[in-house]
Design brief:
The complex is a heterotrimer of chains A (245), B (236) and C (248). By secondary structure, chain A is α+β, with helices and mostly antiparallel strands. Helix content of chain A is 36%, strand content 25%. Chain A has one domain (25-51, 60-244): Aminohydrolase, N-terminal nucleophile (Ntn) domain (Glutamine Phosphoribosylpyrophosphate, subunit 1, domain 1, 4-Layer Sandwich), CATH 3.60.20. Chain A is built from 6 helices and 10 strands, in the order αββββααββββααββα. In chain A, strand 5 and strand 6 (141-147) form a beta hairpin. Chain A is globular and about 55 Å long. Chain C has one domain (28-218): Glutamine Phosphoribosylpyrophosphate, subunit 1, domain 1 (4-Layer Sandwich). Chain C has helices at residues 16-20, 83-103, 111-127, 167-171, 173-179, 189-206; strands at residues 32-34, 38-42, 45-51, 54-56, 59-62, 68-70, 75-82, 134-142, 145-151, 157-159, 162-164, 214-220, 223-226. Chain C is globular. Chain C starts with 15 loop residues before the first helix and ends in a 22-residue tail after the last strand. Classes of the chains: A alpha+beta (245), B alpha+beta (236), C alpha+beta (248). Chains A and C meet through helix 2 of A and helix 3 of C.
Chain lengths: 245, 236, 248
């Protein structure tokens, strides 16, 4: 019987030049519910669909505050995301304490990127099973970054990760050149529109499963859940109504 | 005595005496005064903004009352560097609390944390005399005052700092109604009376205490949040 | 082979038992020191001056020292106190700036950040009871705003439109407060130079650890500029009328 001999740990190459453990970790990200991130020239936005394991359980948190100027959305193992967000929070506090300045977003993401990379090279370790979209606002403006278990970190105008996220990316690719000058509200609605494309047949975005996070020039990192998302869901529906008219 | 002789004498002196000669004191008193008055549904905190060192005025505006959250103000007196670090430590702990519990730290929790933070440095204290002001769980004005090693007391009014020996007896009389007949000593002041008294206390303290003056920071906390006001004191 | 112990004339022999019970202290005395720093805000930014002397006790030991340095593009650092500790600080800041440069991500360390960083070093060292024997004045333009701050070996910090360290706190600060306080945004560069020179002249007359060779520095939107050394015009005519200090 065939069995992969090269996937026992992340420090072993396959003869084809692949590291299977890292690829498996990326699969964990694809199993998480989708999150979408996008930015204009003043704001960065995250929107996410929350899942609950069953009717009796609460919804899993998807968007996490790091500091007044930074937040993340996760897809994959929630517990791994918590470890990374705790690390980011302490780094953000350290930057404030030592230099009196908000931790630059790119440096924050590179710092967790380095942590993730060492898990892909050291024997006996396990790559993180979570992907993150990181938004923030620093001296160089608003930012959106993607972090994944391989340790690769990339900056985006708009991006999506998680299950069926390809549909959202298709939508974002079609529209991202209009995001630059959008207001915060428009940007959020645009994000929700892309997010909706990732839903399974018959599923809807509602106040229970939608999470919104934003940050920007003069706007501290804010997370909206529950009833606070209604306003934007209404705008999303209105937009649809106008399109069909 | 020549220098070598002095050193030799120092080397042979009893240990305690020698230490008082050698030891560098890691503390300074930067002067300044803080006061706070609690009412039925508010607290008022006032601190002057002069920072001094001996007879020198370092700065005319170096605030020593800090807004820790939407309902907690910390007024300090003593060693400015320790006070500023203490505030940073409290802010960071409050943020960790917020992340952990998804709830802004209440003044009562902040009060206990401040005591623990100070006591944690029992053997190398923060040389700071803090007053923490906020609202309690019933919405009443709450003041907590501390010594530098964390002994905590809830009070109705208090003054700390270089002019506290002038201000505290004044407050005892007009806020605490001490040693007066025919008054209810538990009566709480109306907000505008308290504000007037705070300002008068500082006008007087500025006249008599050389380390107090320049600018007055006034914070009022009530159920709507915090308001801040800056008033001028005499600069001499 | 027998060894010979050569004892310097000023060596103090400490009794062995005394050393055993002493607490660990790392306090040293300052050795080679610089005196006042004078600085204030004016229309275009920050003006600062120091003289070029580094004293060894009362001896005018090094007469071409620079006690001001640029930290990055828009920050100026002036120093009073031990020159070795200043070199250590410059070294530390240089490491920081190199690190920052290597990041190459478009972020920059503003004056406020550098001030905070220096303050943390000073407060941290005092907390270890191992202070750097200096007072620092940090001036610059951060986000279009003038910043002028002070930190000493207690970690005491403050910001003010006028700052003077050492003897300057007694002799120059009153002059600065008279001319500058409340006029920080109006004083022209010519006036600022005149005020600065007046302060430095008074200090030269009355502070015995000064020297009539000084540098002036400014931070403006264009960056940091530290002048070549120059001398002030002085007048000692009244000296011969002064009575009561010498044999006459």
């Amino acid at each position: 019987m065939f069995r992969n001999q090269y996937d026992n740990d992340s420090s072993t190459w396959s003869p084809q030049g692949r590291i299977f453990q890292v690829e498996y970790a990326s699969e964990a990200v694809k199993q998480g519910s989708a999150v979408v991130g996008l930015r204009s020239k003043e704001h960065a936005v995250l929107v996410a669909v929350k899942r609950s394991p069953n009717e009796l359980a609460s919804y899993q948190k998807k968007v996490i505050r790091i500091d007044d100027h930074m937040g993340i959305a996760m897809a994959g193992l929630t517990s791994d995301a918590r470890v990374l967000s705790n690390y980011l929070r302490t780094e953000a506090m350290r930057s404030k304490m030592v230099y009196g300045r908000a931790l630059p977003i790119g440096r924050a993401v590179n710092a967790i990127g380095d942590k993730a990379q060492s898990n892909t090279q050291e024997y006996g370790r396990r790559p993180y099973g979570v992907g993150l979209l990181v938004i923030g606002h620093d001296d160089t403006g608003p930012h959106l970054y993607e972090f994944n278990p391989s340790g690769i970190v990339s900056e985006y105008y708009a991006y999506s990760i998680g299950s069926r996220s390809q549909s959202a990316r298709t939508n974002l690719e079609r529209n991202f050149d209009t995001f630059e000058d959008m207001s915060l509200k428009e940007l959020i609605v645009q994000g929700l529109r892309s997010l909706r494309d990732t839903l399974q047949q018959g599923k809807q975005l509602d106040t229970l499963n939608t999470s919104i996070g934003f940050v920007g020039k003069g706007a501290k990192m804010t997370i909206l859940d529950g009833q606070d998302t209604q306003e934007y869901l209404d705008l999303l529906d209105e937009g649809e109504a106008m399109d069909t008219e | 005595m020549d220098f070598v002789g002095f050193q030799q004498e120092l080397a042979h002196a009893p240990a305690t005496e020698r230490h008082t000669h050698n030891r560098w004191e890691p503390y300074v008193d930067n002067g300044g005064t803080s006061l706070a008055i609690a009412g039925a549904d508010y607290v008022i905190v006032a601190s002057d903004a002069r920072q001094s060192n001996g007879y020198n005025i370092n700065s005319r505006y170096d605030p020593k009352a800090f807004r820790l959250s939407n309902d907690a103000i910390l007024a300090t007196a003593g060693y400015a560097a320790d006070a500023k670090r203490l505030v940073e430590v409290l802010e960071q702990n409050a943020q960790m609390y917020y992340h952990k519990h998804d709830r802004v730290m209440k003044a009562s929790a902040m009060a206990q944390m401040l005591s623990n933070t100070l006591y944690g440095r029992r053997f190398f204290p923060y040389y700071v005399f803090p007053i923490l002001a906020g609202l309690d769980n019933e919405g009443k004005g709450a003041l907590y005052c501390y010594d530098p090693v964390g002994n905590m007391e809830r009070v109705v009014y208090r003054s700390f700092g270089s002019a506290s020996a002038l201000v505290q007896p004044f407050l005892d009389s007009v806020v605490g109604f001490k040693n007066q007949r025919g008054v209810d000593p538990t009566r709480l002041l109306e907000r505008d009376q308290a504000l007037k008294i705070a300002v008068d206390a500082f006008t007087g303290a500025t006249e008599r205490d050389i380390h107090t003056g320049d600018w007055l920071d006034i914070f009022i906390v009530d159920r709507n949040g915090v308001t801040h006001e800056k008033r001028e004191l005499k600069h001499d | 082979m027998d060894s010979i112990t050569l004892r310097l004339p000023h060596t103090v022999e400490r009794p062995a038992e005394a050393t055993n019970y002493e607490p660990t202290t790392r306090i040293s005395q300052p050795t080679v020191t610089g005196t006042s720093v004078v600085a204030f805000k004016y229309k275009d930014g920050i003006m600062m001056a120091t003289d070029c002397l580094a004293s060894y006790g009362s001896m005018a030991r090094f007469r071409d020292e620079t006690r001001m340095t640029a930290v990055g593009k828009t920050t100026l650092l002036g120093m009073s106190g031990d020159t070795a500790d200043f070199q250590h600080m410059k070294h530390t800041l240089n490491n920081l700036l190199t690190q920052e440069y290597d990041m190459d991500d478009g972020q920059n360390l503003g004056t406020r950040s550098i001030y905070k960083y220096i303050s943390n070093i000073m407060y941290g060292r005092r907390t270890k009871i191992d202070p750097l024997w200096n007072s620092y004045v940090i001036g610059g333009i951060d986000n279009g705003e003038k910043v002028l701050g002070f930190v000493d070996y207690y970690g005491t910090t403050y910001q003010s439109p006028t700052i003077a360290t050492g003897f300057g706190a007694h002799l120059a600060q009153p002059i600065l407060r008279k001319y500058v306080e409340g006029h920080e945004d109006e004083i022209t560069e010519e006036d600022a130079i005149r005020i600065l020179d007046d302060c430095m002249r008074v200090l030269y007359y009355r502070d015995c650890r000064t020297f009539n060779k000084l540098r002036r520095a400014k931070v403006t939107a264009a960056g940091v500029e530290i002048s070549e050394p120059y001398a002030l015009e002085t007048n000692w005519n009244i000296a011969e009328y002064v009575r009561g200090y010498g044999p006459f």
